[in-house]
User: Which sequence fits this backbone?
């Protein structure tokens, strides 16, 4: 079945560092890909999505580019802030049945030190 | 910011008790999802609806789980006889359509003691 793999379970950075969180997917065709962020005690917040090869999604300084060749959708930010500390989830939209069901990765906890 | 409203935010039930949680999807969003997020942050899809019709559901965990999305009323998820393993964050989400943006509520944190 379709799946999403996030390589890093935890990332620790200092303010103004560059962030990369790796996301690879396994699915046929061109599934929609998503990034969500979840703060403690909250539900996941939608960051952005992309659905075509080479399409770039972006929001709040975060960005990711859909790469069909490497089946990846890596999240990047040029300069992180302490307020970016949260759990980040990569997800894909399951295409079978066209129900919009999301399949999530296991999440990456980002800790940014001031 | 998401406009999906979930109530209650916290729910504590004894084993064997019924647990019910509600969700008002964002206005104009016909697709509604329920997910369970466990303490390891893993998401488990439970069910989704388009308007009042079920699109897809898991084998609703031994039939103890039921959900509905009636017209002109909040959607609901109910666990008939709660078990300790049901303790989790239950997330409702809504979407303008399949494979478009999905917006989540803040969740209902269920603790079964």
Assistant:
């Amino acid at each position: 079945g379709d799946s999403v793999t996030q390589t890093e379970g935890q990332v620790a950075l200092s303010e103004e560092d560059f962030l990369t969180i790796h996301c690879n997917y396994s699915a046929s065709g061109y599934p929609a890909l998503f990034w969500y962020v979840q703060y403690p005690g909250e539900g996941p917040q939608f960051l952005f999505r992309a659905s075509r090869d080479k399409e770039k999604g972006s929001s709040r300084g975060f960005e990711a580019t859909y790469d069909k060749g490497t089946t990846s959708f890596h999240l990047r930010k040029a300069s992180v802030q302490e307020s970016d500390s949260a759990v980040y989830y990569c997800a894909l939209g399951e295409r079978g049945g066209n129900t919009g069901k999301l399949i999530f990765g296991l999440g990456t906890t980002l800790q940014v030190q001031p | 910011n998401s406009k999906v409203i979930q109530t209650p935010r916290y729910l504590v039930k004894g084993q064997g008790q019924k647990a019910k949680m509600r969700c008002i999807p964002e206005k104009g969003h016909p697709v509604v999802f329920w997910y369970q997020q466990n303490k390891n942050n893993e998401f488990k899809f439970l069910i989704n609806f388009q308007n009042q019709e079920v699109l897809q559901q898991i084998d609703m965990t031994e039939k103890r789980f039921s959900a509905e999305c009636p017209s002109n009323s909040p959607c609901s998820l109910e666990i008939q006889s709660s078990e300790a393993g049901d303790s989790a964050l239950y997330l409702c989400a809504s979407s303008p359509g399949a494979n478009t943006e999905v917006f989540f509520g803040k969740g209902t944190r269920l603790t079964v003691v």
Observations:
- Chain B has no helices and eleven strands.
- The mean pLDDT of chain B is 91.
- The two ends of chain B are 33 Å apart (CA to CA).
